[in-house]
């Protein structure tokens, strides 16, 4: 009988990130744009106009596939398969959650993926030098080439920016409720996060394995970052202890130990100032592969997890690792990675 609380194997792809050649793209082929009609503050027609204007200016062909969030995974999967068959790329149009869904399909199919961001924070786009203004991003993607970038995996799902357990998934759910009531802005997200943190009480008791290191911890949240820009804005980059850096060879984990209300207020102040790593009760470390499970794990134990702004339930143990198979992201060779300020993580 299989012990479901033992780590499950996950495919790590090719042995080296750059071992396989990037997918080919025929400049005459039709690009496939997967548009989350509900993402961002712009309506669907505005998004379509931005893309069509860029295509016309560059003499390129594009097929615009718009859908509601419930249909995004299916549409993205079909588009990725078509992209492979036609030697073209799939372009994700939306926020980090939409990008994650399209990236899941593109990574599995092995096609190149482009990005036109419409999210609140757009960490993935900004880290890779993609303009956050949609019209500029649309122009960039038409002149870009596939470049391998690192992705992480949490059980069967890949993630581009972050993954987490504990209070952070609650924070995301509260943030969506605040946005529905007060509108989409970074300050609304920050206020929602503060409200969630101040009422945080639930402790996770976790058994964590990273290589040969094994330990049991109590924490309010376990946050994993695959995005160096976000960690820099936290002020919580871990010390370099293994080869590579978060987002390029390794990932970073942050744990928040149980603390009182006054300490939580101080922690929020440190976070707002980009000095979270200096706050009491915060621990960070680098890793390539981590297995996490509750100390009392049964065959049916499930945990609420978040990845790139999406929330789901997953069966323990939770296997988090850097995948050796990269995602091929369309980037302009002349683009330099950019970093602009934000108030709170996506």
Question: Can you tag this structure with a few keywords?
Answer:
346 residues; alpha+beta; Rossmann fold; Tumour Suppressor Smad4; 2 domains; seven-stranded mixed β-sheet; six-stranded antiparallel β-sheet; 9 helices; 30% strand; elongated; disordered C terminus
Radius of gyration: 20 Å
SSE run: EHEHEHEHHEEEEHHEEEHEEHEEEEEE
Largest sheet: 7 strands, mixed
Task: Quickly count the domains.
Answer: 2
Number of helices: 9
User: What is CATH's topology name of the largest domain?
Assistant: Tumour Suppressor Smad4
Please provide the count of β strands.
Answer: 19
Stretches where pLDDT is under 50 for at least 5 consecutive residues are 7-16, 336-346
CATH class of the largest domain: Mainly Beta
Sheet/helix structural class: alpha+beta
- State the helicity in percent bands: 25-40%
What's the mean pLDDT score? 80
Protein name: Diacylglycerol kinase family protein
Keywords: Kinase, Plasmid, Transferase
Organism: Azonexus hydrophilus
InterPro entries: ATP-NAD_kinase_N, Diacylglycerol_kinase_cat_dom, Lipid_Phosphate_FormReg, NAD/diacylglycerol_kinase_sf
């Amino acid at each position: 009988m299989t012990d479901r609380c033992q780590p499950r194997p996950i495919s790590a792809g090719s042995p080296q990130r750059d071992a396989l050649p990037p997918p080919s793209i025929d400049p005459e082929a039709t690009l496939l744009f997967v548009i989350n009609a509900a993402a961002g503050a712009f309506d669907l027609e505005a998004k379509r106009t931005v893309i069509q204007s860029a295509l016309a200016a560059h003499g390129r062909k594009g097929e615009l596939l718009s859908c509601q969030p419930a249909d995004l995974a299916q549409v993205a999967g079909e588009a990725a398969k078509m992209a492979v068959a036609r030697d073209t790329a799939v372009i994700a149009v939306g926020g980090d959650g939409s990008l994650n869904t399209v990236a899941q399909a593109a990574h599995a199919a092995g096609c190149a993926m482009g990005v036109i961001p419409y999210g609140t924070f757009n960490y993935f786009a900004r880290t890779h030098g993609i303009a956050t203004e949609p019209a500029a991003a649309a122009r960039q993607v038409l002149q870009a080439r596939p470049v391998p970038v690192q992705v992480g995996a949490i059980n069967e799902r890949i993630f581009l920016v972050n993954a987490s357990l504990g209070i952070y998934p609650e924070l995301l759910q509260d943030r969506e409720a605040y946005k529905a009531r007060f509108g989409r802005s970074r300050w609304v997200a920050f206020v929602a996060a503060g409200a969630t943190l101040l009422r945080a009480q639930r402790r996770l008791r976790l058994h964590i394995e990273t290589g040969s290191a094994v330990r049991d911890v109590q924490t309010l949240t376990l946050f994993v970052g695959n995005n160096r820009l976000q960690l820099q804005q936290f002020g919580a980059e871990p010390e370099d202890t293994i080869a590579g850096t978060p987002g390029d060879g390794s990932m970073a984990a942050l744990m928040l130990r149980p603390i009182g209300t006054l300490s939580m207020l101080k922690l929020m102040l440190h976070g707002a100032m980009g000095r979270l790593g200096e706050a009491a009760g915060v621990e960070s470390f680098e890793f390539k592969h981590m297995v996490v499970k509750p100390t009392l794990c049964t065959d049916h134990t499930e945990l609420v997890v978040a990845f790139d702004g999406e929330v789901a339930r997953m069966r323990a143990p939770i296997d988090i690792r850097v995948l050796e198979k990269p995602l091929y992201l369309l980037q302009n060779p002349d683009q330099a990675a950019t970093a602009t300020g934000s108030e709170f993580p996506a």
